[in-house]
Amino acid sequence: MANNQLGVLNALDAAKTQWYHFTAIVIAGMGFFTDAYDLFSISLITKLLGRIYYTNENHSKPGTLPPNVAAAVNGTAFVGTLAGQLFFGWLGDKLGRKRVYGLTLMLMVVCSIASGLSFGKSPAGVMTTLCFFRFWLGFGIGGDYPLSATIMSEYANKKTRGAFIAAVFAMQGFGILTGGVVALIVSASFDHAYKAPPYSVNRKDSTAPEADYIWRIILMFGAVPALLTYYWRMKMPETARYTALVARNAKQAAADMSRVLQVELEAEEEKVETASSSNSFGLFTKEFARRHGLHLLGTSVCWFLLDIAYYSNNLFQKDIFTAIGWLPKAETMNAIHEVYRVAVSQSLIALCGTIPGYWFTVALIDYIGRFTIQLMGFFFMTVFMFALAIPYHHWLSNNAGFLIMYSLTFFFANFGPNATTFVVPAEIFPARLRSTCHGISAAAGKLGAIVGALGFLYAAQSTNPAETDQGYPPGIGVKNTLLVLGSVNCLGIFFTLLVPESKGKSLEELTGENEEADGNDKQQASSTQTLPV
Questions:
Q1: Entry's NCBIfam families (predicted)?
Q2: I want to staple 381 with a disulfide (CB 3.0 to 4.6 A). Which of 13, 116, 219, 489 is the partner?
């Protein structure tokens, strides 16, 4: 196969780490920074939205979002993300990665601002408008998943490709942390400027009228990082692998990469034709099912299972911390101070568990491999979930211990399947289907996020009807919910066995795209089916 490998692709695979690699990481990574900020910032403000729009002063507890409204506010962005992953993943293979890359970013900018400007004459009107813009925000975010992963994969050299793709995804951790920090700054500023009594002291005045600006500022800030990187995203050339292997324009691929790598590269159009003619099967074909069917099943199911647990924990940290007593009861705080306390909690978890986990993956993924990291991550997530759930009542009087254990679940999610489920689909599928297959895998993940977000919303409610949030039926409680999530993580261990190891191999070696059209297809294909050991 090496004899049939395009020179431009060989040059990319063998290239030393250069400035353009870091530029690509930042440009693609800032999209993920924005994605994480936008998706997870909603968890910082849902309690505030409940207080502002649904407080009944005759009740002893401040207002919370009704179950159907909470489900819509938490879930619409994920539904939009799922749709965007499928649509832009497909479009990225049809039109090219670069041509649709800027569109997703502008959609995120516009909808971040529009979310903060949500209007209505009634609470239902405001929530409906917010959900509408959150859906389209999610649609743009969805496109960033397959496009960013595919672009970074196709730009990287084979020696450090895993680290580069993981570094793009690791920007998600900084996005989550920034969301917490922005909420901290805004809420602290408003709390200092507009003093308000706790709800238990004065129900009417505990929510200052100016609090309505807080959630809007937090949501609109998500447009800033996306807007800053738009110009540079438009300056990136199309990836050589798309140009050569999908668009079949060897001359343009050589010219683009000559500028990027600052070397002279020869256009080899006859090799492009050979590679294209020997690998033309589509997504819905027996040949794809034979070569990559189990791989797609593995990447999709693993991402689905991971996101059930990951998004449940991330979106509902505030509820878990309240349940164990780490956050004060809502009635003992005013509305603005509650935002501050929730933001402190999220920032601490991001700083202690989330961000370190991402960068452990970046540092080690090209040494110990994707398969090992994913298997290890699912295993330890299972262990720590059960360790939190089984002696759950012990943790009620040991908040510091609970926080440490809870942080470790995030650490091993990110030094584990949350990173690898993003990396692997960008490596193991053919160039003409790479973005589509990554989009399908990511969409399966977001389906898991929807299941996790909506399921946790109801399941984590107390088994005692007197202790449930207003409007919610009794659930199975936080302890039993953690047991369920631990079991979900355990399933991820088994489905990881379907995912191949891609460490140290070129993309074409993994997919067989440069097979000689001489009748050796079957033999060559079997040699690229990497076992996960």
A1: 2A0109
A2: 489
